Structure formats: structure tokens, C-alpha cells
Amino acid sequence: MPKEDFRFHHTLRVRWGECDAQGIVFNAQYLNFVEVAQAEYFRNLGVLLYDKQSRKHFDVATVTAKLDFLAPARVDDMLSIYMRVSKIGNTSIRVLVEIHRQGPEELLTTGELVYVTYNSDEGKSRPMPVDVRDLITRFEELGSPSPG
């Protein structure tokens, strides 16, 4: 997908502790990178995923995570994690992700994740709040690319 189709990205630097014995980013760390970008995506919309009060209105749980590794990231690489909500269902959100290494530019990882809107007090999914649906829809259709 062209990077221009993503309305949001977040930049981070690979740390030594995220690498394995081969000196490359351990595969499970990529989900941590996506988690950071997800929180920043929603923070950009004014929704705080890690705020206890906010989670009473909107929270998500991961139900599907698929990543394709195209090239390795290494310690000290600057990564741009691009994220786009591609579909909003009644209780779910489908997200497309790409992780790029900065300078020289290289696509490292692509992925697709599905989150269910979640009520942690009841331990089950719940309908997507209309106001959050509207925020995401407006941002994805009308937003300008975020500097991250």
C-alpha cells in the first residue's frame, strides 16, 4: 500500500533489549511496536487507551494479529510504523500496518490486526461507541498525514 494512503505514523528507535542473539529485532517485539503505534493513533484522536476512565467508554482487545516479515530491523534503526483503520464493524476494528526503516527507506513488515471493542468489567465484546466510530471515520477519510 502506498505510504500516502496511511493517515498516521509513529516513529521509534530500536533499542538493544529488543534484539535477539543475532542482533536483529526479535519477532515478538514487532507486536510491541504496533501496540505503541496503536496507542499513539488513538491518542492523536483524543482517545486514551491506557486511562482507566476512558476505557470504561472505549477499550479494545486483540483477536487477530498477522505480520509478514520482509527484512530485519536492527539496533538503533529508526522505524516508522504506519497504521490505518481499514474497516469498522459493529464490535471490531480492522487495522493495516506497515513498518518502514528510515534512511535508507525500506519496507520491513506488513500486517493486519483485528481488535474487538471490549468491556473488561464484563469480559466480553461490546458495540463500537458511535463517537469513536465517527472520530476514526472522519480522520481516515479527511485527516491529513500525521508527523507521528
Task: Please explain how this structure is put together.
- Strands 1, 2, 3, 4, 5 and 6 form a 6-stranded antiparallel β-sheet that branches.
- The radius of gyration is 16 Å and the shape is globular.
- It has one domain (3-142): Thiol Ester Dehydrase, Chain A (Roll), CATH 3.10.129.10.
- The chain has helices at residues 29-44, 52-57, 130-142, and strands spanning 8-13, 60-69, 78-88, 92-101, 106-119, 124-125.
- The model is unreliable at 143-148 (pLDDT under 50).
- It is of the alpha+beta class.
Defining traits:
148 residues, alpha+beta, Thiol Ester Dehydrase, Chain A, six-stranded antiparallel beta sheet, 36% strand, disordered C terminus
Structural class per helix/strand content? alpha+beta
Average of per-residue pLDDT values = 92
CATH architectural name: Roll
What number of structural domains do the residues give? Answer: 1
Biggest sheet details: 6 strands, antiparallel
Write a short abstract of this structure.
This protein has 3 helices and 6 strands; from the N terminus they run βααβββββα.
Summarize the topology.
Blueprint: E1 8-13, H1 29-44, H2 52-57, E2 60-69, E3 78-88, E4 92-101, E5 106-119, E6 124-125, H3 130-142
